[in-house]
Structure formats: C-alpha cells, structure tokens
Amino acid sequence: MQKRYLLRLKRDEFCCDHLYRVITDGSFLVYDDEKREFLVLRPYAESADQLDYCPWCASRMPASLNDAWYAAVEKSIPNFDEFSTPRAQIPLAFRSSAWWKKQKL
After folding, report:
1. What's residue 12's pLDDT?
2. Locate the DUF6980 domain: which residues (predicted)?
3. Cβ of 55: how many Cβ atoms within 10 Å?
4. Which of 7, 20, 28, 38 would you call most buried, defined as having the most Cβ atoms within 10 angstroms of its Cβ?
5. What is the rounded radius of gyration, in angstroms, for the C-alpha atoms of the chain?
6. Domains of the chain: which residue ranges?
7. At residue 57, does pLDDT exceed 80?
8. Contact, 87 vs 2, CB < 8 A?
9. What pLDDT score does 1 carry?
10. Quick one: residue 58, left, alpha or beta (phi over 0 = left, psi -120 to 50 = alpha)?
C-alpha cells in the first residue's frame, strides 16, 4: 500500500469528524483509496487489520473493493503478480479511487 496524499481527502468521505482527524493526522489508521479500505497498521508486521465499523460512531464502513481491484488489474495486466509486478506497470487509474468511482461501486 502506498502512502496516501492526505490533503486530497475530504471530510465528506468519512462517517464522522473523529475518524477524519485520526486518518489525516498520520496515525496508525489509514484509508486506502485504491481499494476503499480503512486499515489499522500494526507496528513490526507486514499486514494490516481492516476496520468494518468506525470505532467512534459505530457506522458500518463501505465494503472493501480489494477483490474487485485485483480482478480489474489482472484483466488489464497479463501475468499480473502482486509481489513481482512493479507498481509503475499498474495503470494509473488503478492507483487511486478513480477506477471504482468511474464504475460507481
């Protein structure tokens, strides 16, 4: 997951002010706009835990698009491998929320 450009995130993309502030202040909570996921990063681990509900207002988070992202990228890149395909080979549209917003997912 690449570092997000937090200044582009808008308050209306989040369920509450508290979550917006935590995400945009560089905490261990991050928003992955490529896959529409809210994640808790774990120090010293190469993985993250997905949030299904906001810890502050209990709103259900939008469904993750992780599987849909991989399916779409695999269609556009022959022999795509998440571990060996350089990020630069992934089409620019798939490196942001543009792909799923265009499809209205």
Report:
1. 80
2. 18-102
3. 13
4. 38
5. 14
6. 6-50, 66-102
7. yes
8. yes
9. 46
10. left
- Which tokens sit at 75? 């269609």
Counting Cβ atoms within 10 Å, is residue 36 exposed (0-12), middle (13-18) or buried (19+)? buried
- Cβ atoms of 36 and 100 within 8 Å: the answer is yes
Who has greater pLDDT, 105 or 25?
105
Q: Which residues contact 69 (CB under 8 A, 6 or more apart)?
A: 34, 35, 94, 99, 100
Supply 64's token pair.
């993750």
User: What token pair was written down for 53?
Assistant: 């509900």
- The pTM score is 0.70
Condensed to tens digits (0 to 9), the pLDDT of residues 9-22 reads 777 878 888 778 77
- Convert the chain into a string of H (helix), E (strand) and C (coil): CCCCCHHHCCHHHCCCHHHHHHHHCCCCEEEECCCCEEEEECCCCCCEEECCECCCCCCECCCCCHHHHHHHHHHHCCCCCCCCCCHHHCCHHHHCCHHHHHCCC
Please determine, for residue 65, whether its predicted confidence score (pLDDT) is greater than 80.
yes
